[in-house]
Amino acid sequence: MTRIIVLTGAGISAESGVPTFRGAGGLWEGHRVEDVATPEAFAADPETVQRFYDARRRAVASVAPNPAHHALAALERAIGDDLLVVTQNIDDLHERAGSSRVLHMHGELGRARCAACGERPPVQDDLLPGPPCPACGERMLRPDVVWFGELPYGLDEIDAALAACDVFVAIGTSGAVYPAAGFVLTASALGASTLELNLAESEITPFFAESRLGPASVLVPEWVRELLAAPSRTT
Ligand code: OAD
């Protein structure tokens, strides 16, 4: 059985119309993501930070998964538990394409976190008006996203999966943010084969055994077709 970890970044959602963080169009109202995605930024100017995430939540609600998300969902239907998608994305496009084994290591736009009671309620609307927490009633909800300086979700589960995987694939991530950028080194040190699918070379391209350049909407379906057609596949 092949155990596959797919790490996704903003590039897989780019063709759905969700802007990436870095590169052209990567600024939001003149802010770098590092300037709005920190606990310090939230403490200093909560309104600007809430507006940033409210705008992204609204933008994501109006777009749809693209062929790359659909191909990963098809791969999960074919190999089930042998696939884990670890995403840095806070959108829900993997789930809307049909994937269920998705670990959101940087959190989700579709959840809030209550600073008063710790509850993580689902959220669809803007957080800027300061709605009350459905659990405790306090108006202290923040986006349930991981900011710079905070610990990503699921690191123990990811470490265990990296240790057990045979294949590690990174799709549409710049490799600028750790710990995700280091997963390829862990996976290859532990014996996995490694493949990068990206529109352009990334900061971590040299760490992969193989790197394919092109849009995710083309490369991901191609790779999934190859994998499912391979004679050595035992699942
Ligand atoms: P980035 O915006 O840093 O990088 C996007 C990557 O996607 C780049 O390497 C592009 O070449 C690639 N790309 C763009 N369009 C593509 C396409 N159509 N097909 C394939 N690849 C494409 O996004 P991430 O690497 O996801 O964290 O950023 C990592 C983290 O930085 C984010 O999760 C976020 C951000 O700060 C937090 O907010 C904690």
Summarize the structure.
This protein has 235 residues and is an alpha/beta fold.
Q: Helix- and strand-based class?
A: alpha/beta
How would you name the oligomeric state of the polypeptide chains in this document?
single chain
The average pLDDT score comes to: 93
Contiguous helical run count: 9
User: How would you characterize the largest beta sheet?
Assistant: 6 strands, parallel
Bound small molecules, deduplicated: 2'-O-acetyl adenosine-5-diphosphoribose
* Beta-strand fraction estimate: 15-25%
Strand order of the largest sheet: 3-2-1-6-7-8
Radius of gyration: 18 Å
User: So, the CATH homologous superfamily of the largest domain?
Assistant: TPP-binding domain
Your description of this structure?
This protein is α/β, with parallel strands linked by helices and 235 residues long. The protein has 2 domains: 1-18 and 65-106 and 152-235, TPP-binding domain (Rossmann fold); 19-62 and 108-145, SIR2/SIRT2 'Small Domain'. 34% of the residues lie in helices and 17% in strands. The chain contains 9 helices and 8 strands. It has a 6-stranded parallel beta sheet, with helices on both faces. A two-stranded antiparallel ribbon has the order 4-5. Strand 6, helix 8 and strand 7 form a beta-alpha-beta unit. It is globular and about 55 Å long. The model has no long low-confidence stretch (mean pLDDT 93). The structure holds 2'-O-acetyl adenosine-5-diphosphoribose. 2'-O-acetyl adenosine-5-diphosphoribose binds at residues 9-11, 14-15, 20-22, 26, 33, 37, 88, 106, 146, 172-174, 176-177, 198-200, 202, 215-216. Its EC number is 2.3.1.286. It catalyses: N(6)-succinyl-L-lysyl-[protein] + NAD(+) + H2O = 2''-O-succinyl-ADP-D-ribose + nicotinamide + L-lysyl-[protein]; N(6)-acetyl-L-lysyl-[protein] + NAD(+) + H2O = 2''-O-acetyl-ADP-D-ribose + nicotinamide + L-lysyl-[protein]. It is found in: Cytoplasm.
